[in-house]
Amino acid sequence: MPGHSHEGALNFTPAETELAARLRAHVEALAAGERNVDLERPARYIEQQFGGSRSQQFQSGGRWVRNIEAGAGPIVVGAHYDTVPGSPGADDNASGVAVLLELARMGLPARFVAFANEEMPYFQSGEMGSHAWAARAHRAGDKISAMLSLEMLGYYRNVPRSQGYPPPLGWFYPDRANFIAFVGDLDARRLVRHAVGFFRKYAKFPAEGVAAPAGIPGVTWSDHWSFRSHGYPAIMVTDTAFYRYPHYHLPSDTPEKLDYMRMARVTLGLAAVIKELANENR
After folding, report:
1. I want to staple 130 with a disulfide (CB 3.0 to 4.6 A). Which of 23, 191, 192, 223 is the partner?
2. Cβ within 8 Å of residue 141, ≥6 positions away
3. Model pTM greater than 0.90?
């Protein structure tokens, strides 16, 4: 991967402290309850935070649900807002939605989409919100130059052996869970390399990238799968979920578990990545 992962102190700024407070407020609002049977409560919150937005309704599981979209451009940044039953989903995936909302506030040249139905029983099926969105874009012939799926961005540990991996990746990557990861399948390796390179250039925060076979557990386990299924370049940005987070899919996935200062630094790094990807496609 291009560049070098940041090492050393992070030294947060007052602006990052303010951003961290907004991120925490979003996570606390979204994680006030489960987000599966009733998706309208979080949908209305996201809609309110976006300001001007558009909805894509589709039928799933005998009910109508919706994706919520703001912004414009050939780059798509997405995060799912549903949870598994029994979990308030602070990291999975209120953290991703919180970052999505703050990126959208920055006026970046991208489309920002909050997706319904990423979790089971819809996972990797035509009833995923991201699959409905990508299928519609494909039918319409929409140009999508890059898709970033924000999937769990809030949990970090700086102690040895706090990070796990599927075999054989543990031989090549750090054992401390202090980094953000850019993950894609082999055919998305160009986007992985560019995103990691831009992040490392602008963000003083540890970052790793991997382009690996789709069969390795976790490589395709988010909304980028829907876009890859329709031939679009798409990757996941993640804290690596269950490979480091002990509260994954549990009732204990609550807001106080997350590191909002690090989330703020990641958010600003992703803003720089989006700007650079947009510049590439002018």
Report:
1. 223
2. none
3. yes
Distances (CA, A) of 60 to 4, 37, 79, 230: 44, 11, 18, 20
Distance CA 97, CA 118 (A): 13
**3-state DSSP percent of the chain in helix, strand and coil, to 5:** 40, 20, 45
Question: Letter for the amino acid at 277?
Answer: L
Query: How is the chain split into domains, by residue range?
Result: 17-280
Rounded to 5 degrees, what are φ and ψ at 216?
-70, 130
Torsion-angle region of 220 (φ positive above 0: left; ψ -120 to 50: alpha; else: beta): alpha
Distance from the Cα of residue 260 to its chain's centroid: 15
Q: Alpha helices, DSSP H only, in the chain?
A: 14-30, 40-50, 96-105, 129-140, 189-202, 224-229, 260-280
What is the C-alpha end-to-end distance of the chain, expressed in Å? 24
Confidence of residue 170 (pLDDT cuts 50, 70, 90): confident
Fold of 17-280: Aminopeptidase (3.40.630)
DSSP code, position 161: T
Query: Would you state the structure tokens that stand for residue 83, as one six-digit string?
Result: 């949870």
Q: Which of 163, 175, 31 is nearest to 91 (CA)?
A: 31
